């Protein structure tokens, strides 16, 4: 994946949450997730969402809705 400056970077993807949640809960889920020895998980950006998410109902940064969706946490790997 490329940043807007053309710089390439890698992300690591954690497993999708087992249940749907509200946006605020999704943020907390990522913030407190301890997976694979890492605790720096976050919601994906819209570009990352399109790259990694196989389910159309997953949270990404700045999505504004009242729906309950799954979350696929990501972290910068470099």
How do the strands and helices of this protein lay out in sequence?
Blueprint: E1 11-13, H1 23-32, H2 46-52, E2 74-76
Antiparallel strand pairs: 1-2
What report would you give on this structure?
- The chain has 78 residues and is an alpha+beta fold.
- It has one domain.
- It contains two helices and two strands; from the N terminus they run βααβ.
- The longest helix has 10 residues, at 23-32.
State the main characteristics.
2 helices; alpha+beta; single chain; 78 residues; two-stranded antiparallel ribbon
Q: State the order of secondary-structure elements, H for helix, E for strand.
A: EHHE
Tell me the distance between the termini: 12 Å
Q: What does the oligomeric state look like here?
A: single chain
Number of self-contained structural domains: 1
Structural class: alpha+beta
User: Using DSSP, what is the number of strands?
Assistant: 2
- Could you estimate the helical fraction of the residues in percent? 10-25%
**Beta-strand residue fraction:** 5-15%
Mean pLDDT over the full residue set: 85
């Amino acid at each position: 994946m490329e940043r807007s400056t053309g710089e390439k970077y890698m992300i690591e993807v954690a497993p999708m949450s087992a249940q749907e949640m509200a946006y605020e809960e999704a943020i907390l889920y990522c913030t407190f997730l301890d997976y694979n020895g890492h605790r720096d998980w976050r919601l994906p950006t819209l570009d990352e969402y399109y790259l990694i998410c196989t389910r159309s109902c997953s949270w990404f940064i700045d999505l504004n809705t009242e729906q309950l969706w799954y979350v696929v946490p990501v972290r910068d790997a470099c």
